[in-house]
Amino acid sequence: MKRLAEETKKRFQVEIPSEHIDFLKEMDGLEYNGCMIYGVDEELLEEIPDRTVYGLLEYNDMRSQGDKEKRLYIAESETLLYIYSFEDKSYYQLDNFLYKKLKKYNSYAEMIKDIIKKCIE
């Protein structure tokens, strides 16, 4: 996790929220039923996992191009994005196409529960 945190700070000048680091320590990303929670990028791992992990750095590189707001993309589904906004230190659900804020979460745990619920629906 240290390498991911260092590389995130170097590339995007932001720090990964500690709650997300804790989640990644337990479960390095998740991909199920059209939902993805980004994990540690393969180039930062000592051992390559036997499953596909969608890297946090890779997806933030793609998503943040031209992004005016400083945010960390944490997860996505077919129609939604899940982010941490550094502006107000809050978690949001965004429309995947317009990047419009649809829902503000009270906590990281609330957002992760919502993501996992959508994955299993």
Notes on the protein architecture:
It contains 4 helices and 6 strands, in the order ααββαββββα. The protein has helices at residues 2-12, 18-26, 56-64, 108-120, and strands at 30-32, 35-37, 71-76, 80-85, 90-95, 101-105. A hairpin with a 5-residue loop joins β5 (90-95) and β6 (101-105). The radius of gyration is 13 Å and the shape is globular. The protein has 121 residues and is of the alpha+beta class. Helix content is 35%, strand content 24%. A 6-stranded antiparallel beta sheet has the order 1-2-3-4-5-6, sandwiched between helices. The termini are far apart.
What spatial order of strands do you see in the largest sheet? Answer: 1-2-3-4-5-6
Number of strands: 6
H/E series: HHEEHEEEEH
- Unreliable runs: none
Overall form: globular
Q: Considering DSSP H and I runs of 4 or more, what fraction of the residues is helical?
A: 25-40%
Structural class computed from helices and strand pairing:
alpha+beta
Strand content: 15-25%
Question: How many helices?
Answer: 4
Distance between the termini: 30 Å
The largest β sheet comes out as: 6 strands, antiparallel
Gyration radius, in Å = 13 Å
What is the averaged pLDDT score? 88
Question: Characteristics of this structure?
Answer:
alpha+beta, 4 helices, 121 residues, six-stranded antiparallel beta sheet, 6 strands, globular, single chain, 35% helix
